[in-house]
Design brief:
Layout lengths: L3 H14 L13 E6 L6 H4 L8 E5 L6 H16 L9 E7 L4 H4 L3 H8 L14 H19 L4 E7 L6 E9 L4
Amino acid sequence: MINTEDLVSRNAAFAARGAHEGLHILGSGNLMVIGCVDSRVDPSHVLGLDLGEVTAIRNVGGRVTPAVLRTLLMLAKVREAHRGDRPAGTHIVVMHHTECGIKDIAAFPDMLANDFDIPVEALDEKAVMDPVAAVRHDVGFLKEVLNTRMPGGLVTGIVYDVETGRIEVVVPTARAGDE
């Protein structure tokens, strides 16, 4: 078990390397990843990204929920405030994964429906049991929202296989508003 002293020691080693110095508040480019809180699927590690290269939003299942949409809109304002000479637009990658614990929450439909802010009867369309269908659904929904609230953004949908360590591009990169 990792205890507080371990965390302090590990942090001291991290700080000594200086990797935290000079990083921008929203990453070195325009990449955002929406992913799951599962400890096996940290977007930076899975996608080979370094500290400061990505803004990651993580929740149970990596789903595009109303809370995630609110976070994206707030981050758009932060990006505007800190743009400077940074590239315009955002590339959002929705990353779901195999063997996700969100399947376990399906046994608690009221809880799951509350997270999506929908009636229980509408849960089937969220494809909770199928990560490929779920990422397609979430990317489609996100593209609709971005088209009206954050036009010009790019969206990609991927599924990470926890057994092989590989990703599959399920929804190729497209601009919000494109079919």
